[in-house]
Design goal:
- This protein has helices at residues 20-29, 51-69, 79-92, 104-110, 122-125, 128-137, 150-159, 166-177, 199-205, 215-225, 253-258; strands spanning 10-14, 35-39, 73-76, 97-98, 115-120, 142-147, 187-190, 210-212, 238-242, 261-266.
- It has 11 helices and 10 strands.
- Helices cover 41% and strands 17% of the residues.
- It starts with 9 loop residues before the first strand and ends with a strand.
- Helix 2 packs across helix 3 (79-92) and helix 4 runs parallel beside helix 6 (128-137).
Length: 267
């Protein structure tokens, strides 16, 4: 294996800013890792796209990003993209690729009632991949699913300094709790990386609920795959790149800077 350049970045990819919830966890574990965060604002939102659209778009776009930034590892910080296109991305790229999948396993491990929930995009919750996760990690348990696309836009607006309508979060939780067995639901997996960014609001809407997401598992996987590699002695300015117009990220600069992403570019 060729030596890894010390300055080779970790590349994070999402349709928007949801992957910041993953980046935050990784930053705590690898504080000097160079970071490139790519947001496909030209394609946002993914949750309403067809499987064919995502399958065609994501591997090609990541190929361009890898060619430009030469990362040591790619993290697809998007549940929708991973449940549909992860295997195709791995086949197309010559660098390690870490995926993001709905946190059904940690939800199943922490439930006391055997009823767990999944909040995600419409594209994520309908995937057979989710069925396989339930079979593998939550056999005999009840998995309640609800598509909550409003939460994506709520997270995006929150990071722009706006205050989302509280009823958005109430509706999202009622989409689970009003289902049969919803009164026994005690743990909900946040199956979109945007959703942890509004976890406080979801908790306020449903105080009895516990929430889990996949960021801790992703961090462990990144550390495992980069074990033994050298990192810079000090942290550097992170890069935020959007596939859309820079006008798409107006209002996000303060939030991006708080995550260490101070260079803002378009692809």
């Amino acid at each position: 294996m060729p030596a890894i350049d010390t300055d080779a970045p970790l590349l994070f990819f999402d349709s928007g800013i949801g992957g910041l919830s993953v980046l935050q966890a990784v930053r705590k574990s690898l504080p000097t890792a160079p970071i490139v965060y790519a947001a496909d604002y030209a394609g946002l939102p993914y949750g309403t796209k067809s499987e064919a659209e995502i399958m065609a778009r994501v591997p090609a776009l990541l190929g361009r990003l890898v060619e430009r930034y030469r990362p040591r590892l790619v993290t697809i910080a998007c549940n929708t993209a991973c449940t549909i296109a992860l295997s195709h991305v791995r086949a197309a790229l010559d660098v390690p690729v870490v995926g993001t999948v709905p946190a059904i396993k940690p939800a199943a491990e922490s439930t006391h009632t055997g009823v767990i929930g999944l909040l995600g995009t419409a594209a994520t919750i309908r995937q057979a991949y989710v069925d396989r996760l339930q079979t593998a990690h939550a056999p005999g348990m009840t998995l309640l699913r609800h598509a909550a696309p409003e939460l994506v836009h709520a997270a995006e607006s929150k990071l722009r300094g706006e205050t989302p309508d509280p009823s958005i979060f109430s509706r999202a939780m009622q989409g689970l709790t009003l289902l049969p067995d919803g009164d026994r639901l005690d743990v909900t997996a946040l199956g979109c990386t945007h959703f942890p960014l509004v976890q406080d609001e979801l908790s306020a809407a449903c105080p009895r609920m516990r929430f889990v997401d996949g960021s801790a598992g992703i961090t462990r996987r990144i550390r495992y795959l980069t074990a033994g590699q050298e990192w810079p002695a000090e942290s550097s300015e992170g890069v935020f790149v959007t596939t859309g117009s820079l006008a798409d990220v107006e209002g996000l600069q303060t939030a991006l800077h708080s995550y260490g992403l101070t260079q803002i570019k378009s692809l």
